[in-house]
């Protein structure tokens, strides 16, 4: 039995994907009966310590190597992604950037959820051989495609017409999430209902907070901002909606995409290189407000096109199922526990 310790403070801040990814992996490992002696946020001796967040007390624990075993770090962000999300004074930002890199360098191995991060970490001085790609996943029990009668009941609960075409977006309210484009697209499609599920997880230090707060407080008539909601309710929003629209400018591997696919909800994203190696043909893409508008209208008016988008989402859900990823994680942890320096892990 592998002694595995998870260290994380991700769930202290609501409405962020890091917490969702952590909870999914922790739940999955708890289901692997007889394979792991699993502990959370404890500092007993173990074979593997998996660091999900970069707390300073976790950083200090890396210097007790014998007790920590093999140190595995989860890379949920790089300095560049923080810069686009939070408004930090220049001196603090410089110190924080150095700390992030130093934390990653203290790890024996790193796990990224998007392979495009591997060369970026290499550019920060981290050996490529230490970095492994394992994608995110979501539980089918929490995120499942509901029958039509449940979808209509959800719409009634949220006071949305059965006849309405509903577009949902999800995530923190940030400029990098493409909120301005989301709202502009909605303005050009006044006959469609738009819903953004999520809020300001980091409050006033969110980059562009004043501008975004004004939009959230006074949205167009066909746009709703729900604020931060419990993750357990997210499945309802995907099921009452006709599609997920996420016009982000920068991402890793949003849990919202996997959650929506698991509910059979079609996906429309901005045309970003980082999606190509992880989402294949499971999503649809556009690159500007006019092309977003055109794609959404096609989804609304062309039933054959829409059904193809639904099938693409379902294929994606199967590819990123928890059953398949359980095998990947079990193999990875077994390798980590058996040898100190692991050869390049290939999924």
From TrEMBL:
**Which residue ranges does the record assign to the Glycosyl transferase family domain?**
151-314
Query: Per its UniProt entry, which superkingdom is the organism in?
Result: Bacteria
One GO MF annotation is: glycosyltransferase activity
Keyword Transferase attached:
yes
Return the InterPro entries for the record: Glyco_trans_1 (IPR001296), Glycosyltransferase_grp1 (IPR050194)
Q: Which Pfam families match?
A: Glycos_transf_1
Keywords attached to this entry: Glycosyltransferase, Transferase
Which residues, by range, are in coiled-coil regions? Answer: none
Name of protein: 1,2-diacylglycerol-3-alpha-glucose alpha-1,2-galactosyltransferase
Q: Which organism is it from?
A: Shouchella lonarensis
